[in-house]
């Protein structure tokens, strides 16, 4: 059987899809280059790891590994609902918030529907809509690498099914403030579904100008869902667990129909509950990022590089020439960062905030590579 025949059986949308750039594993880099230490700075993981309570909770759940998990993740949804001042019927769990992005597209996007998102973009904000045959409109950031509100207002003038953006944004790190957020959502068509991806929520939650999306969205007519995750500030990226907070139980019910019934495994449910209760670990993780981000930013600026504003656990910066070539050279030093591959941003790299040691290794390697 030829590959051509297999392709003729597949959906055109699936064949045409670009592959999500999920980065290199430590192992792959170790094998190619003879390096002992890897500075993993490409995936925005928590350099402090997970709370010790999480390890205990997973161990406690391990003896029950033969038993299916709760398909409704009810205890966890109730805990999240309490924390967010909502009811559990408005909370939906995903195998990572990536899962929820896919489920939203499966449930709501028809071929030809228009989906509006940000450029540079989080890949899955357009890959999953494309999978359903959507038309994608992308709104570039402005020259300051901030949200271009007039651009969004123009883009939202046309009928649209989904409006998806991350706040703060990945990969740029820029943040819509209260006014900007209100302007953007007010410009969206009244019959679209607003998807606000707050993967980096915990890094901004206490900032005075970070929009309290749940309150602001509640008072407007459009259906909406706010996505958050345990992958970043909680340090559970390896367990795959994210959640959505929806405007209406009907959204949760539709997503329940299209998801796999046991999409959150037993260990992940136990881990997320434990992580949620260790507030101190999250605060420590956020404080670490804030302290290290400022220092890293100054060091990059001192090297003559342009650095985008960031309220998240990474920095987006511009290098002379191709970002991918710079990232490739950094691998030889055991440093993994993420080169941006979208047209117009191929000279930008994203580096995660890591341990102090890894940031020093990264800066020294970058200095050598750019010499
Ligand atoms: C990291 C990230 C996610 C993915 O989170 P998971 O819960 O690990 O799937 C979603 N959206 C954005 C914008 C992210 O940066």
TrEMBL record:
Catalytic activity field: L-histidinol phosphate + 2-oxoglutarate = 3-(imidazol-4-yl)-2-oxopropyl phosphate + L-glutamate
InterPro entries in alphabetical order: Aminotrans_II_pyridoxalP_BS, Aminotransferase_I/II_large, HisP_aminotrans, HistidinolP_aminotransfase, PyrdxlP-dep_Trfase, PyrdxlP-dep_Trfase_major, PyrdxlP-dep_Trfase_small
Pathway annotation from the record: Amino-acid biosynthesis; L-histidine biosynthesis; L-histidine from 5-phospho-alpha-D-ribose 1-diphosphate: step 7/9
Alphabetically ordered keywords of this record: Amino-acid biosynthesis, Aminotransferase, Histidine biosynthesis, Pyridoxal phosphate, Transferase
GO BP of this protein: L-histidine biosynthetic process
N6-(pyridoxal phosphate)lysine modification, residue list: 232
Cited CDD domains: AAT_like
Origin superkingdom: Bacteria
Aminotransferase class I/classII large domain location: 38-365
KW Transferase (keyword) present: yes
Obligatory cofactor(s): pyridoxal 5'-phosphate
EC number in record: 2.6.1.9
One Pfam family it belongs to: Aminotran_1_2
Molecular functions per Gene Ontology: histidinol-phosphate transaminase activity; pyridoxal phosphate binding
Record-linked NCBIfam families: hisC
Assembly, per entry: Homodimer.
Family, as annotated: Belongs to the class-II pyridoxal-phosphate-dependent aminotransferase family. Histidinol-phosphate aminotransferase subfamily.
Name of the protein: Histidinol-phosphate aminotransferase
């Amino acid at each position: 059987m030829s590959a051509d025949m297999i392709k003729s059986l597949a959906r055109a949308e699936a064949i045409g899809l670009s592959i999500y750039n999920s980065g290199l594993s430590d192992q792959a880099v170790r094998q190619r280059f003879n390096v002992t230490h890897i500075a993993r700075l490409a995936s925005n993981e928590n350099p402090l790891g997970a709370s010790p309570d999480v390890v205990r909770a997973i161990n406690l759940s391990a003896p029950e590994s033969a038993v299916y998990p709760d398909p409704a993740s009810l205890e966890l949804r109730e805990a999240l609902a309490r924390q967010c001042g909502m009811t559990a019927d408005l909370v939906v769990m995903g195998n990572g918030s990536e899962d929820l992005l896919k489920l939203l597209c499966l449930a709501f996007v028809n071929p030809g529907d228009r989906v509006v998102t940000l450029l540079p973009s989080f890949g899955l904000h357009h890959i999953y809509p494309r999978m359903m045959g959507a038309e994608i409109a992308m709104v570039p950031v402005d020259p300051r690498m901030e949200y271009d509100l007039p651009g969004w207002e123009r883009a939202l003038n046309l009928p649209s099914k989904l409006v998806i953006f991350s706040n703060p944004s990945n990969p740029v790190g820029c943040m819509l403030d209260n006014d900007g957020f209100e302007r953007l959502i007010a410009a969206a068509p009244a019959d679209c579904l607003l998807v606000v991806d707050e993967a980096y929520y915990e890094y901004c939650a206490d900032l005075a100008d970070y929009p309290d999306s749940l309150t602001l969205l509640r008072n407007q007519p459009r259906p909406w869902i706010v996505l958050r995750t345990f992958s970043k500030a909680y340090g559970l990226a390896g367990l795959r667990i994210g959640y959505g907070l929806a405007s209406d139980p009907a959204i949760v019910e539709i997503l329940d129909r299209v998801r796999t019934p046991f999409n959150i495994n037993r260990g992940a449910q136990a881990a997320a509950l434990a992580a949620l209760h260790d507030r101190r670990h999250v605060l420590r993780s956020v404080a670490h990022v804030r302290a290290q981000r400022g220092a890293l930013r100054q060091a990059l600026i001192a090297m003559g590089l342009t650095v985008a504003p960031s309220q998240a656990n990474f920095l987006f910066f511009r290098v002379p020439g191709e970002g991918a070539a710079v990232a490739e050279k950094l691998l030889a030093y055991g440093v993994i960062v993420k080169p941006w591959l979208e047209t117009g941003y191929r000279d930008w790299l994203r580096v995660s905030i890591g341990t102090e040691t890894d940031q020093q290794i990264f800066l020294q390697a970058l200095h050598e590579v750019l010499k």
